[in-house]
Design a protein that fits this description.
The chain is an alpha+beta fold. 52% of the residues lie in helices and 10% in strands. The strands form two sheets. Strands 4-6-7-3-5 form a five-stranded antiparallel β-sheet.
Length: 322
């Protein structure tokens, strides 16, 4: 009995020692992957904290909602009004980026509007805590988030970021455009020519970086993004396996789904079948729609960005398809 009692007394200390060993091993792995000094990585990683709220948030994402509930989150009168004001305020800088990259200014603004409500909500979690929590304690996507945690340490070295005070989303995305560490490293651009890529304080950097992300993922200037579709009365339900635009429009037509208006030429496409507020909605997405989905791999997200961009540009946005 005395041995059992002694073991029970020692268990907390054993657990603490095991956690320290796990963190030390993780610090060594990160240091090796990124060519960093483990003596720099380990003290910072030791201060990463597990946050149950982060696990709770990632298990109930907004993208799990139906379109009828998801759309009203982002397509609000206030967000549309603020988007138009933001576009007008930064028209010159955004126009330069649009001319250089072919990515429309209103799409860049819509991304910022959906991601951070035009900079008002960049996230309240320490990025270090978010990526540690998900990289160590969230098995479904542990590999991805552990890689992002590793990238975070290298990013901090490159951009001189303070990891103990860096704030972002529950998933570890950061800045006005909510870039993950790997995206920050790979796609961020110095838009104001000061020698830094600052996605927290430099809007020229933010604009250039979002546009560059789209270009790198295959944005094609002047091509359509998504159009409403009409479904034949006798058409069978059809859901393509992915958002990749692999289907010719003619094939969709043969299946009973056609663009509401003529496009004038054939394009690779995909089909979206959504639960709208007025009933089923059907949309045909193209390459540029797929590119938006590389930012967030959700058809709902991409359609919300597109519709918000149309409203910001003060075009007649298509809200629903009866």
């Amino acid at each position: 009995m005395r041995a059992v009692a002694l073991l029970l007394l020692l268990l907390p200390a054993i657990a603490v020692a095991a956690k320290k060993e796990d963190r030390r091993a993780l610090a060594e792995q990160i240091a090796k992957e990124q060519g960093l000094d483990v003596a720099v990585v380990e003290p910072v990683l030791a201060r990463a904290e597990y946050k149950q709220a982060i696990i709770d948030a990632i298990t109930r994402p907004a993208e799990a909602k139906p379109w009828s509930a998801y759309r009203p989150i982002f397509l609000t009168p206030n967000r549309i009004r603020d988007g138009r004001a933001f576009l007008a305020q930064h028209k010159a800088a955004l126009s330069r980026v649009e001319q250089e990259t072919g990515v429309p200014a209103e799409v860049i603004v819509a991304i910022i509007g959906v991601e951070t409500n035009f900079g008002r909500n960049g996230g309240s979690y320490r990025v270090l805590d978010a990526l540690y929590t998900l990289g160590v304690h969230y098995p479904p996507r542990q590999t991805f988030f552990r890689s992002e945690l590793s990238q975070l340490f290298k990013l901090a070295q490159e951009e001189k970021l303070d990891l103990l005070n860096l704030k972002g989303s529950y998933a570890g995305a950061m800045g006005w455009g909510q870039f993950m560490p790997s995206s920050y490293r790979n796609y961020a651009r110095d838009g104001d020519g000061d020698g830094r890529r600052d996605l927290f304080n430099s809007l020229p950097d933010v604009f250039a970086s979002i546009a560059n992300y789209f270009v790198a993922h295959g944005w094609k200037a002047g091509e359509p993004v998504v159009v409403p579709a009409v479904r034949d009365a006798d058409a069978e339900d059809f859901r393509p396996p992915s958002l990749e635009p692999k289907l010719p429009l003619a094939e969709l037509g043969n299946r009973g789904y056609r663009p509401r208006y003529a496009l004038g030429h054939d394009l690779g496409a995909t089909l979206l079948s959504l639960d709208g507020q007025a009933g089923p909605e059907y949309w045909i997405g193209f390459n540029n729609f797929y590119v938006i989905s590389r930012y967030n791999r959700s058809a709902l997200y991409s359609l919300a960005v597109f519709q918000l961009a149309e409203e910001i540009a003060e075009r007649e946005a298509i809200a629903s398809v009866p």
